[in-house]
Design goal:
Chain lengths: 274, 274
């Protein structure tokens, strides 16, 4: 098996990217790949937990924007692509048993069962791309680090066994850009939408913005405003607290790349406007 | 019991409207009531059908924009209002057994069970209000008729036993208003979003626009463009085809009025932006 690197795939068509992920030759993060296509977080659960998890997503649309749900036992994500097999088409998976991380994998064909449901949730790449296209710099991308993420004091709306605090990501924004940043990101409800907070981090329970709970620290230059978005790590925290017998997620940064254009009105293949 | 009429409630606060609906003194349609608040279609199903119906809504977000889902057996719609009891807070209900309409009711306290799940779906009132505020006339409202609705040739994306053609509503628009109408309605993804078709009705299987399948005929003045939106009758058609043992919907036009402002970013009480 020949491994494929990020630089090679950066300018490759989506079909080639997906093939390299599917055959296991590409196992790294997906930032910057499949340009223009919606990327998604992944959560796979036994069907007994599916209705409650789907309710949790519906009730927490900013951290958990549902973009696709498989049929029970069917690994094909038919509404997100013409040929997406959720067992192989994510570069790296993380496996939890009873709420505890027990391993990672580059495909999950041996773990998939007739009782499983796969959920795809929108991710921040979409609004970050839109912000950068509008000339708003993203420090963590320019410096090749992971965006800082924090467990906030904001409660999610519980559903069955799923609950917990909202995880938020932080980006420092020049004050003159704040209104534009809010307006642009609000246009992407399937990618966390507008920010949930801006200004004093302590107001949402963040006491040291230089010590993120996940990701890397990022500077807040003098006069810049820290802006906080609901983050796709929130459902992972809720999944850990619900402790289903098995749960499979993508490994952070290693997302599902869909066939849905990033600016589509809906995340459904056959309902994109004529 | 003193009956309350539409004109009395038109300028009443939401709490008074809801109280009159709850105690059964108001049993008529809700157009123009609770101004500024999101109204919703209703579907109540046994829990065995809930996951498939929720998948159907996720896969068909234009006809079936999910705005609220109850816990199984809990009649309080906690994310849509501070005190919404789905058994009493809709003016008129329609009851289906095995897919067949068997009756109507003004409350369903005797039919609700511990096994039921209530789904609220956004409705066209929201984008119609926004269009009228922008100076776009709505002929069916000005003439006190029901918008014409048609069974189109557009297939919905099936989920389990739920499937069928998309039902669409039609509004004739002056050509100079078309772009504005599309842009405004697209801003309301929780209220059917942008139109699914405009122009020749035959392209979506509608051969006589003067003979709607539901609602009243409406003129298409010379030079006007017929514009078609996904319609909230679509899930009712899918529910009839799925034939659950029991299903309760609102009676057309007799909607659930929520506490969510019509222009909120999400339909979740506790997540409206600060």
């Amino acid at each position: 098996m020949v491994s494929t690197d990020h630089d090679t795939l950066r300018h490759a068509p989506l079909s080639q990217v997906r093939a390299a992920i599917r055959d296991g030759t590409y196992r790294a993060h997906t930032a910057g790949l499949g340009a223009g296509y919606l990327q998604a977080n992944l959560a796979i659960l036994p069907s007994a937990h599916a209705l409650d998890f789907m309710r949790f997503c519906q009730r927490n649309p900013k951290p958990c924007p549902l973009v696709g749900v498989s049929d029970t036992g069917n690994p094909m994500m038919t509404t997100l692509g013409h040929d997406i097999d959720i067992r192989t088409d994510v570069p790296a998976y993380t496996i939890y048993r009873d709420g505890t991380l027990t391993g990672t994998a580059t495909d999950i064909a041996d773990l998939w069962s007739d009782d499983m449901v796969a959920f795809a949730l929108g991710c921040s790449f979409t609004f970050e791309n839109a912000l950068m296209q509008a000339g708003i710099p993203m420090w963590h991308i320019d410096n090749d680090t992971t965006v800082p993420m924090f467990r906030s004091s904001i409660d999610t709306v519980p559903a069955g066994p799923f609950s917990g605090k909202m995880v938020v990501s932080m980006r420092a924004v020049a004050p003159g850009h704040l209104d534009q940043v809010r307006a642009i990101s609000q246009r992407f409800p399937l990618a966390h939408g507008g920010p949930v907070h801006w200004g004093d981090p302590a107001e949402i329970g963040i006491h040291d913005p230089q010590r993120p709970d996940w990701g890397d620290p990022a500077p807040i230059p003098d006069g810049h405003v820290p802006v906080f978005w609901a983050c796709g790590v929130t459902p992972q925290v809720a999944l850990e607290s619900a402790s289903p017998p098995i749960c499979i997620t993508h490994t952070p940064g290693h997302m599902l790349i869909t066939d849905i254009p990033e600016d589509a009105e809906t995340a459904i293949l056959s309902q994109t406007p004529q």
